[in-house]
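Task: encode each sequence below as structure tokens.

Item 1
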Amino acid sequence: MHAIRIYIVASHPLFAQGVSSLLESQPDLQVVGLREYCEDTLREIEALHPDVVIVDSEQSARAEITDALLTKIPGLKLVGLSLEEDNITITYLQQTTGAAVEDLVAAVRVRPSSTWLPLQRQMRILAAIQGPFGQRVVENVQEHAPSYWNVSVWRAPPLLPPDKESLSLLLPKSLPAADLLLGLGESPQLASLFPEMVARSGARAMVVPIENHRWTPQAVVRQLGSTMGEMGVPVVFPKPFCSLTMRTYNEASWRVVYTDAHIAEFARYFGRPELRILFDDEQCVTRCEVRRDTACGLVHLLVERLAGCPVDRVEEVASQLLCGFGCPHRDPGGATVDPEYGAPLEHVTGSIVREAVRREVAPFLDQGASVVMDSVAA
């Protein structure tokens, strides 16, 4: 029986060596090459003709690598492998993610169809927006999404009629074809249109972030979740939006696990913030890059603000940005407590952002020297 020949493009050589050993332990799998990505890597893959190429990389680099591979070798079977949140995340075909060695072996063994294309080259997004929050998200996604995404927008009026029949008349007869619907409404009424939008666009998954519980009350979430379940369309309700990862959403005891690949592909680039900060010998920021932005664009703005910042002021700068950014959770009349978290949602958002920043600066700070950011939420 012909062994499945595997080539590994490695951004983390030691990790990739371990993956290689695990795969080689399978009698029907053979690793024929392993090296870091460069021009020679493309030539070597062309020469070796592997059955599968595993791309082990950070999410920010994987899109560039896979795009180059598929441009050079159309139809190549790719399996994306990344270390995220201390777990392995595997993405392949158009609908499957996994987090175990067995998932990786299954991804390598599965036979691609004649129309093989990785999910990330087919992402068509339709965003339903109603006001400033949705506009901010759409502008950020359009600016920073991979070039092979197609982002369409349908804008609802700020004031919507209360009855469903009048609401339905607002929708055009046809909507742009979509893989993923972003429901970015700012009133409970708009959510009642999402099932019909899914039907008219052909969307195969939906993300409805909860940025303000007045916009999307729990009763609306339950009804929409039930309707989408009957339609067989996965939907997630990240609360807040920046809690979304490639496998989960929400925080602490409210965390939910999901398995849809379209949502995961969106969360590869937008959701729970991740950044990389490098410092020089004087412990000032020399390089800061976005690994995953928040949907509203906070991380890209933070990266701009941190240029040249001393390490002991990074958290302070992030705090100041959070205070002035104007998250939709913020209530000018005072902090509104979210009924599930028992705290204002802006506190939850602040905690998520602080965690991302502290993860980067902690190794460079003396214990106890970190600037306290908890006052942001006060």
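Item 2
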Amino acid sequence: MTVVVGARCSDGIVVGADSISTSANGRNPLIQIRSDDKIRIVRDQAIVVGSGSIGLAQRFEHLVGRSIDGGVFNRCCHDCLFTVANEVREDFTGSGVHFAPQGHGYGFGAMVAAPIDGQAELIEFNTFDMQPERKTSLRHWVSMGSGQALADPFLAFISRVFWGEREPTVAAATVGLCWALEHAIQHAPGGVGLPLRIAVLRREEGVWRARLLSENELQEPRQHIAEIEARISRYAQEGIAAGAVQVSAPPTPPDVAVAQFSQVP
């Protein structure tokens, strides 16, 4: 069980996840274990995170690394994603991974942020059949995992209010994704938990590089979140209670104004 979030940015990609894994006996969950390696950095240039079986996540990471080494990520985006998805499905099916066509498919999904054909891309491999979806400027954020039902509406709010429904900067996305993760972790009935982890892909000295942010680097977005929440709280207590917004009467419709003028003697 997990919650994963990602955002395509004007200057890179940001991906975040919680740090709880569930040990299970088949489909029966047993215990929750802290897992700090949900987000993996592959070849210093790709961010990979899975939702579902840890074993499948490890195999997916290996296949992404092999594709990078084989030059697959230097091809056009369509060819790259077709190749990776095809190899993943062949690998899973070849070892007998169960696919439930009337249920949850493979029960595994993944998110990849990487330079493809020289451009930073955010790709969602859906949790049914691993079909890839490239995120665009119009659909620039994504979440997956057991916490998706909490993260998705919150990310829609963040995109509308804080990002103006446009691609945010890496800095703004880091704040927004941290906030969405904290919200999902705080209110989820179980299966997800702290600490949250954030990774960024951005250009450094002309080269796309991926790395995990340190705990110290996450202090600034947390401070921004605390200040935003404090300002909302102050407005609720002072602005709404004091009637700070002056609501004026709507203007008279033009046809009514003409009718009133025509009745003047």
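Check on item 2: The mean pLDDT is 89. The chain has one domain: 3-213.
End of task.
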